Amino acid sequence: MKLCSLFMLVSLCRGETPSGRADTFPIEPDLPCAVANDQPRTGYHVDLTPEGERRASAVYHRSIIITAHDHCFHADDFKAQASAAVTVRTIKPIVDGHYRQGGIRYPIETPVAGWRERGVHALQILRQHAQQSNGRIRLVLSAADIESVKKQGQLGIIMSFEGGRALAGDLANLAMYHEMGLREMQLYWAVPSPLKDEDGSLSLFGQDVIREMNRLRLVVDISHMPEKAWRQALALARAPVVVSHCGAAAISGRTNRGTDDLRDDTIRAIASQGGVMCVHFYEGYIPARHGPVSTVRDLVDHIDHFRAVAGIDHIGLGTDYFPEKGWKWVAGAETIEGMKNVVREMVYRGYTDAEIEKVLGRNLLRVYRQVWGK
Ligand SMILES: [Zn+2]
User: Fold this and answer.
1) Reported confidence tier of residue 232, pLDDT bands at 50, 70, 90
2) How far is CA 231 from CA 41, 184, 227, 276, in A?
3) Reduced to 3 states, what is the DSSP secondary structure of residue 249?
């Protein structure tokens, strides 16, 4: 560990990509997300009537609220989750292609050794947060756990990975991670991995990973997949999938970005298998259409579109907050507290309480129950 931090220091000073085993790179965030996030707060306001405000607050606090994509697991991030009254966060403690330190991103571009150890360590860190929380933080292993977390006012976390490098090319590691409490995995991130062929399609190993995830009852997250790959994944999957963070191509105007910007045919294909698509909160996915910067209004345009194409039963929220400077999330939802504003905007647009509850968490809960079983 001494050597590692010394090595880190040297490489940071040089501003270079460090080389070495993946398990020597940091995992635990040294900054909470709300501190690392240095974007200027531009303000956001919904003109709700007092009755609308009352309704928004009531439905928010009654609902099971789940974010399907999150990277914030500093001790203060759990305080932020509590203060935002968010029931469950699907936390992805490691990402295939980088790590963060001091609010800065460092790439891990080439496949290096030590990914299995990195994966194990990542899950151990999250488990420790739960173990040392006096019952405040709870590892979610079943759909019933989510209901119970809500009832008891706990803070739920679902353990996931962003990308499959942690498998280290060995299918047996999936069962090992499942045993440790992993309940979801995102297959792809923006770098090469044993799950991908060079043209971006699923490798034979990647296809086996989906079969094994179905057998073990792990949720498959098809985010960041090009068209060929998501089509392969949907054809193979024996259970509903999630896209943990995405936008609608018809709203963003970008039609060639796979599951990042979902075209209407993609939305229908995922919905027809019972899947849920979770709207991104990062402005890069949610271009500004109502003013100079992206706001919660732009975000809810994507929800409107998903509803128009596939109905309300296939929409979720995938905030994707992470502890890194220089990024912008939609105004009004710069931090997890902003999930309330999404509800206020939905109330403003006439969504019913039942519809809002589905988007906030009921839809994801349905998929989790279906995939994880009783
Ligand atoms: Zn992410």
Assistant:
1) very high
2) 39, 19, 6, 16
3) helix
pLDDT of residue 43: 76
Cα 294 to averaged position of ligand 1 atoms, centre (Å): 19
Give residue-wise pLDDT tens across range 340-365: 999 999 999 999 999 999 999 999 99
> Residues 6 or more apart from 306 whose CB is under 8 A from it?
248, 262, 267, 277, 279, 314, 315
Q: How far is Cα 320 from Cα 322, in angstroms, rounded to an integer? A: 6
Position 19 confidence tier, pLDDT thresholds 50, 70, 90: low
71, 161 in Cβ contact below 8 A?
no
CA of 280 to the centre of ligand 1 (A): 10
C-alpha of residue 55 to centroid of ligand 1, in Å: 31
List, in order, residues 6 or more apart from 79 with CB less than 8 Å away.
Answer: none
Residue 5: C-alpha distances to residues 26, 232, 269, 291 (Å): 9, 41, 47, 44
342: closest CA among 300, 289, 288, 293?
300
Report the distance separating Cα 340 and Cα 70, nearest Å.
17
pLDDT at position 2 over 50: no
Locate tokens 């990024």: which residue? 327
Q: pLDDT grade, residue 8 (50/70/90)?
A: very low
Report how far ligand 1's centroid is from the alpha carbon of 98 (Å).
11
How far is residue 213's CA from residue 190's CA, in Å, rounded to a whole number?
Answer: 21
What's the chain's average pLDDT?
A: 94
Positive or negative torsion for Cα 261, 263, 264, 267: negative
